[in-house]
UniProtKB/TrEMBL annotation:
Gene that produces this protein: rnpA
One Pfam assignment: Ribonuclease_P
GO molecular function, one term: ribonuclease P activity
Cited InterPro entries: Ribosomal_Su5_D2-typ_SF, Ribsml_uS5_D2-typ_fold_subgr, RNase_P, RNase_P_CS
Organism this protein belongs to: Kitasatospora setae (strain ATCC 33774 / DSM 43861 / JCM 3304 / KCC A-0304 / NBRC 14216 / KM-6054)
Phylogenetic placement of the source organism: Bacteria, Bacillati, Actinomycetota, Actinomycetes, Kitasatosporales
Protein name: Ribonuclease P protein component
GO terms under biological process: tRNA 5'-leader removal
Listed GO CC annotations: ribonuclease P complex
Oligomer and partners: Consists of a catalytic RNA component (M1 or rnpB) and a protein subunit.
Length: 142
């Protein structure tokens, strides 16, 4: 399970990552990443001294979108648990203050764990690249 400080919970945070962030699509999932989100005015998130908070920015936070197209509730929850575990292992690679939204596609319901990990790693590599996307397709193959 992700620590509370690393979870996206508010609709505005999800919307910010999806609308203003970079996107990378893979056959099993889509990753949206907004780097170094600006903390809200009056927010006191950084008042404590957490060692992983860099330069006054909050830690990277992740959220998950698993729609009914993926399957019934049992399947959706299983996919969400797998993705949460995979993202939790990779949070240290993300820039402090960034917001990441991982959207599962229907194929994720039957995908083996290593395939989910492969697609997540490939999508993260793509959104973390420093050069702009330039309108290139977001990857349809493996």
């Amino acid at each position: 399970m992700l620590p509370t400080e690393n979870r996206l919970r508010r609709r505005q945070d999800f919307a910010a990552a999806v609308k203003r962030g970079r996107r990378a699509g893979r056959p099993l999932l889509v990753v949206h990443l907004q780097r170094e989100a600006v903390p809200e005015a009056g927010s006191d998130r950084n008042s404590d001294s957490r060692p992983h908070v860099a330069e006054g920015l909050p830690p990277a936070r992740a959220g998950f979108v698993v729609s009914k197209a993926v399957g019934p509730a049992v399947v959706r929850n299983a996919v969400k648990r797998r993705l949460r575990h995979l993202v939790g292992e990779r949070l240290s690679r993300l820039p402090a203050g960034s917001l990441i939204v991982v959207r599962a596609l229907p194929a994720a319901a039957t995908a083996p764990y290593p395939d989910l990990a492969h697609d997540l790693d490939a999508a993260l590599r793509r959104v973390l690249r420093s050069e702009p996307a330039g309108g290139a397709p977001t990857g349809t193959g493996r």
